[in-house]
Amino acid sequence: MGKIKRSFTKASISEPAFVALVSAALEAYDKETLGAIMGTVYKKKILIKHAVAYQCAIRKLEEVSIWPAKEKKIRDAINALTGYKILGDFHSHPDWTCVLSKHDKADMIENGTRISVLISVGQADGNKIPWGYDKDEKFLYGTLRGDFLLNIRVYARELNSKRIYKVPIDCPFVTSMNKKALY
Predict the structure, then answer these.
(1) Prediction pTM value
(2) Bridge partners for 113 per DSSP
(3) 10-179: CATH homologous superfamily?
(4) Is 60 exceeded by the pLDDT of residue 3?
C-alpha cells in the first residue's frame, strides 16, 4: 500500500489574521517577530482566522525565539480562551527574502510544526504597490502607505515527513485594501 500524502491545497487568511500578522511584523521591524496562528483545517484547506504575537519573544535581526515554558503558557491560554486550534506559528524576516532559512526549516521539523507563515518586511521608499498574489511563487505582496514592502508566504510540512512546501494563499481582505488604495 502506498504512502498517503496529506498536503494542504490552500491557505485562506482572514482580515483579523492579516492585520495581526502585518502589524506584528511592522511593530518588531527591524528585528524578527514570532507568534501563533489559529484557525481550522477543513479537508485540505487551512483557514487562518487569528494570529497572536508573542510579546516575550527574544528578538534579534536574524532570529527570534521564546522560552518553551512561556510558549506553553501562552498556547494554553489561547486554547482556553478562543476555541480555535493553534495551527502553527508565524515569524518575520526584516530586510530579507520571504524564504525559510535552513534554521527555520530545522525548527519546523524539530518542533513538529506543520504550518508556518513567513512575512518579509523592507523599506518601500515611497513606492506604492497594490496588493497582489504571485501564483508561481505562492506569495502575497504589497506596500503599506508606500513605507513598507511586505511579502507573505505560507509553508507547510507534510505529516510525519521532513518535506516542507509552499501553500497557495487566498486573502480576500487585500482586494478591499486595493479598492480603498490602502497600499
Answers:
(1) 0.91
(2) none
(3) Cytidine Deaminase, domain 2 (3.40.140.10)
(4) no
